[in-house]
Amino acid sequence: VTTSKLHEEVRALKKLKHLETPYVVKLFAHKLLADNCRVFHFEHPNSQADGNNGDGVDNERFEALRYERPKSDCGASILHGFAGYFESVLYGDVLLSIRPETHTPNMFSWFPIYFPLVHPVYLEPGQREIRVNMWRRSARHKVWYEYALACPVMQPMVNPEGRSYAAEL
Q1: Is the model's pLDDT at 52 over the cut of 60?
Q2: How much of the chain is helix, strand and coil, in % rounded to 5?
């Protein structure tokens, strides 16, 4: 996603921890640079559950993601981070979604999550490929995300070991 206004608001907070924290936010002044794709998938009840309130169930995830900018819209741009969306099949064909393609009508209270890059990346005209590695990590009482841009340039991992943020469980 390119979103200079949002990235500048986060950068203005002046501390690394703010650039390593994802934000649930309504994206206004932004442009999606590529189609979104499924990252993590969960099923409930979890078939790995051992009947002990889910103890021992591994909910950590890793995905190596590849995005391709469309040829028809591949001018110069700046990659400020990534937008994440949520979709849930509650039962049968009952769907709750904030994905642009399947957004549930009249659902205004859920927003995308913005994963900022510490250092935005200039995308040359014609630069189509964007790759990022994404982890969902957890410890006994917390869960967090880590991610690292792999292409068009490699960048260090963001939020390693949950150093800047983690959600308490």
Answers
A1: no
A2: 10, 40, 50
Can you give the residue ranges of every domain in the chain?
A: 4-35+59-168
Tell me the whole-structure pTM to 2 decimals: 0.88
At the topology level, CATH places domain 4-35+59-168 in: Hnrnp arginine n-methyltransferase1 (2.70.160)
Cβ atoms of residues 127 and 152 within 8 Å? yes
Q: Which residues contact 107 (CB under 8 A, 6 or more apart)?
A: 96, 98
- Hey, what long-range contacts does 5-12 have (CB within 8 A, 24 or more apart)? 5/29, 6/30, 6/80, 6/114, 6/116, 7/80, 7/81, 7/116, 7/117, 7/120, 10/116
Average pLDDT over residues 93-108: 85
Closest listed residue to residue 126, CA positions, set 70, 63, 44, 87: 70
